[in-house]
Amino acid sequence: MSTIHVLPPLPYADNALDPVITAHTMGFHYGKHHKAYVDNLNKLVPGTEFADLPLEQVIAGSAGKADKVGIFNNAAQIWNHTFYWHSMKPNGGGEPPAALRQKIDAAFGSLDGCKKELAAAATTQFGSGWAWLVLDGGALKVVKTGNADLPMTKGMKALLCIDVWEHAYYLDWQNRRADYVNAVLDKVVNWGFAADNLG
Ligand SMILES: [Fe+2]
Fold first, then answer.
1. In this predicted structure, what is the pLDDT of residue 124?
2. What is the distance in A from the centroid of ligand 1 to the CA of 34?
3. How far is CA 83 from CA 43, 50, 171, 194, in A?
4. How far is the C-alpha of 82 from the C-alpha of 27, rounded, in Å?
5. pLDDT at 108
6. Binned average pLDDT, 10 residues per bin, the chain of 199 residues
7. Which of 189, 147, 142, 149 lies closest to 164 in space, CA to CA?
8. How far is the CA of 164 from the centre of ligand 1 (A)?
9. Among the listed residues 68, 71, 82, 89, the one whose alpha carbon sits nearest the alpha carbon of residue 6
10. What is the pLDDT of residue 135?
11. CA of 69 to the centre of ligand 1 (A)
């Protein structure tokens, strides 16, 4: 009996992030794209060494293996999208919790400095990918990854992410990726989730 991967529920209503991310985008992004990664993985893993493994072990075991790229891409994209939905909340933005704020100030000088680095990573990621706030050896860093790649394959702990695949913003923002990213950071980013991930 293989492990069946499931599409986790959205942590809020599909229109809760409107107008930054509309229900129209959510219907495709969560309802079609995220769901397709789950459906694809459930077709790919039966009969393989990954059949009985939880998602994070599928990701770790397939990362960097040329003959496992389909399994890695779908598994990582399931994880990335679940993490992305939780990286946002209605009426987000504002001030991070104190413990996170101290680490942000130490790494970036100010909250604004942190948001600027995240926005720069998100807008300079060439093609599809992700911008991340991560914990790397005890310090905060901003990194970007291409396609399905994610911090855990580089030994870093993800705290927060922004999806910059075109499917994340094109219906609402067309080509204005920077406007989408800045709206996320100002209005819906979930600093509490990032603080929880500090552990
Ligand atoms: Fe996406």
1. 97
2. 7
3. 22, 21, 21, 10
4. 15
5. 98
6. 89 98 98 98 97 97 97 98 98 97 98 98 97 96 98 97 98 97 98 96
7. 147
8. 7
9. 82
10. 97
11. 18
* Residue 14, amino acid: D
Residue 188: both structure tokens together: 């819906």
- State in Å: Cα 189 to ligand 1 middle: 16
pLDDT at 1: 57
* Closest C-alpha among 84, 129, 100, 91 to residue 194: 100
CB neighbour list of residue 46: distance below 8 Å, 6 or more residues apart: 2
Looking at residue 85, its pLDDT comes to 98
Rounded Cα–Cα distance for residues 12 and 20 (Å): 14
Who contacts 58 (Cβ-Cβ below 8 Å, separation ≥6)?
41, 45, 50, 71, 75
Is the pTM here over 0.70, yes or no? Answer: yes
Ligand 1 centre distance from Cα of residue 31 (Å)? 11
Q: Using a CB cutoff of 8 Å and minimum separation of 24, what contacts does 168-177 make?
A: 168/21, 168/25, 168/29, 169/21, 169/25, 171/22, 171/24, 171/25, 171/28, 172/19, 172/20, 172/21, 172/22, 172/24, 172/25, 177/122, 177/123
Residue 33 Cα to ligand 1 middle (Å): 7
> Ligand 1: distance of its center to the CA of 155 in Å?
22
129 Rama class: left (phi>0) / alpha (psi -120 to 50) / beta:
left
